[in-house]
Amino acid sequence: MDPHIRFISIFKEYPSPRGKESSVKALDGVSLDIARGSVVGIVGYSGAGKSTLVRLINGLELPTSGSVVIDGTDITGLPETKLQKVRSRIGMIFQHFNLFGSRTVAGNVGYPLKIAGWSRENIKARVTELLRFVDLEDKADVYPRRLSGGQKQRVGIARALATSPEILLADEATSALDPETTTEVLGLLRRVNQEFGTTTVVITHEMAVVRELCDNVVMMEKGRIIEAGSTYSLFSNPVTDTTRKFIATAIQGTPSAATLERLRARHPGTIVAIEINEEYGSSEVNRMLAAAQVTGTVVFGGVTEIGERPLGTLTYELTGPPEAITAAIEQIAAHTRTEVLSSQQPQKEVSHGH
């Protein structure tokens, strides 16, 4: 199946500020396919080019060179009238909600339909349906100033869905929300994808959002894609330092130097960090330790779920005969990433891949 969205060798340059001669390169040779019905996270620090990339999808920006193909149509050279038709199939959710303060919740949600020329009767029916979907039926006549942040974003989602878009663009949609509300909004976006098959592109700098919501991740830095793949593969096997730093914010990995110092003071045994994944869980670790007659106690770490598959790092204190500990570590390291952090005995660090 052809990708829903395709970027082909995209370059985007802006004139340099303050009259400097060289232009600013926002996107530097980006090629990317986004599958129909997928949820893709575009991740990077500020200035990585992620917002520019997404603005190309709805034709708010044009590339300096390269092509943006949506549903088989190259939209790069389309006249404005045809671009408007493309935009009508794309919904947008914003970080700061962008609601009209002078319109009620129903008025905000119905606004795109009014612009599209729907009858008053049809608008009312569609708005009722959408407010039921986002669980805000009782707020139809309320003005935005009376809503919480989470409620405002749910109104934003309902408005974005008004014209039944095939593509949904979410620009930092949860970064203004508290953790509990963020979880609710992410759950709603996941429902949108599952129930309507909407291709969803999420711009974020929060890996927790990616972990909860996205099937695939695109990591960007300085206008280039530095890494891309399924969310699980990127979390479990990051290639670049930038990706590792982002992932460390969403998964508890090995303890920091200061934490390790505290662990050493409390736990005199050998301290080992072991990756837990779908192929090698904590029960397998425990079985191998028991077979080697080594006692293992979890002293740090955690395991989370990514795409309903477990991933994380557990740090164990191992106690027992030195040769038994060495043998157990070598056995475990043959199956999963293992690192000796602290040892009572002189022992080499073992760091193996899968």
Concise summary:
The protein has 354 residues and is an alpha/beta fold.
Task: Please provide a written account of the structure.
- The protein is α/β, with parallel strands linked by helices and 354 residues long.
- The chain has 2 domains: 5-248, 3-Layer(aba) Sandwich (Rossmann fold), CATH 3.40.50; 257-342, 2-Layer Sandwich (Alpha-Beta Plaits).
- Helix content is 35%, strand content 27%.
- The protein contains 12 helices and 14 strands.
- It has helices spanning 50-57, 80-87, 105-115, 120-133, 149-161, 179-196, 207-213, 231-236, 241-248, 257-266, 282-291, 322-333, and strands at residues 5-14, 24-34, 39-43, 65-70, 73-74, 90-93, 167-171, 199-204, 216-221, 224-230, 270-276, 295-306, 309-319, 338-342.
- The strands form 3 sheets. It has a 6-stranded mixed β-sheet with strand order 6-7-8-3-9-10, sandwiched between helices. It has a 4-stranded antiparallel β-sheet with strand order 2-1-4-5, with helices on one face.
- Strand 4 (65-70) and strand 5 (73-74) form a beta hairpin.
- The model is unreliable at 345-350 (pLDDT under 50).
Which CATH architecture of the largest domain? 3-Layer(aba) Sandwich
Number of strands: 14
- Written as H for each helix and E for each strand, in order along the chain, the element string is EEEHEEHEHHHEHEHEEHHHEHEEHE
Structural class comes to alpha/beta
Strand content: 25-35%
Quick one: biggest sheet?
6 strands, mixed
Cα Rg: 25 Å
Could you estimate the helical fraction of the residues in percent?
A: 25-40%
CATH class of the largest domain: Alpha Beta
Strand order of the largest sheet: 6-7-8-3-9-10
Mean pLDDT: 90
- Give the total of domains: 2
